[in-house]
Amino acid sequence: MAVPRSHPRRESLLVREKLVRGLERGLVAREGLMAHGRGEAFDYLLGEATGRHARKALRAAAAVLLLAERPIISVNGNVAALCAAEAVRLARAARARMEVNTFYGDGGRRARIAAELERRGARGVLGANPESRGRLAGTSRSRGAADKEGILAADVVVVPLEDGDRTSALKAAGKQVITFDLNPLSRTARTADITIVDNITRGMDELARLCREYSARGAPALSRIVRNFDNGANLAACIREMTAGLRRQWIA
Ligand code: PTJ
């Protein structure tokens, strides 16, 4: 559908179109459309802008990624449809590998997502080769598959828009978890080490930019940024940011 230039919600409609095209191309799970709707509602409360507390989480995430030894960026259907090129830029800036890892299992879809990332410039994308598949302890066979060379071997995992059980399994496996989740109340948001409460359509590229900006900094300076970050406190601040925005616009 053509979105008129004058439409007041043009940006949001264009993002929806990207997801629908992703569904038609066999990248996105049908459930991905509903997951996006939930995210949109929280983005509305944020004023559809990257807030101060999301920026703080983005800085901490960049520092953790640059300090990591084996970082990995996990890509699902929604991420591939909404920001494949930006995720590839992040992998490059953070010297991380990429793994296609989907919640709703389907080998064909994983292969299409890997091809999409490669089309955007990624090399050696993991997750589509059945021989390299292992399983995250504490998850079911269908939900816990992960690549032995990728997520299973990583110390830091970026898992945007992730399911709560899988995030808990990653933590139990000793990984540092960075997520993007517009819902600050979700289990993933509360379980991850760093939750970026921002739309991935804005935040992914900003994270790549920060990794490039911080790449010349030494480990002590990066570690200071990480030490000054508290995920629970930051989530509480994001919730206050949303409620303050609501009061300003609608209640006061
Ligand atoms: O491609 P698959 O099979 O891996 O499936 C992907 C989805 C997203 C369907 C799957 O991982 C899923 O069901 O996720 P959940 O459990 O619904 O969690 C997704 C979270 O991401 C929710 O808390 C949403 O609020 C949030 N979210 C949705 N869209 C965005 C978002 N957060 C940031 N940016 C978005 N664009």
UniProtKB/TrEMBL annotation:
It catalyses: (R)-4-phosphopantoate + beta-alanine + ATP = (R)-4'-phosphopantothenate + AMP + diphosphate + H(+). GO terms for biological process: coenzyme A biosynthetic process. Pathway: Cofactor biosynthesis; coenzyme A biosynthesis. Pfam families: PPS_PS. Keywords: ATP-binding, Coenzyme A biosynthesis, Ligase, Nucleotide-binding. Its EC number is 6.3.2.36. The keyword Nucleotide-binding applies. Transmembrane segments: none annotated. ATP binds at residues 16, 38, 181-183, 187-188, 199-200. It is an enzyme of class 6 (ligase). GO terms for molecular function: acid-amino acid ligase activity; ATP binding. NCBIfam families: PRK13761.1 (NF010324). Homodimer. Catalyzes the condensation of (R)-4-phosphopantoate and beta-alanine to 4'-phosphopantothenate in the CoA biosynthesis pathway. Belongs to the archaeal phosphopantothenate synthetase family. This is 4-phosphopantoate--beta-alanine ligase. The lineage of its organism: Archaea, Nitrososphaerota, Candidatus Cenarchaeales, Candidatus Cenarchaeaceae, Candidatus Cenarchaeum.
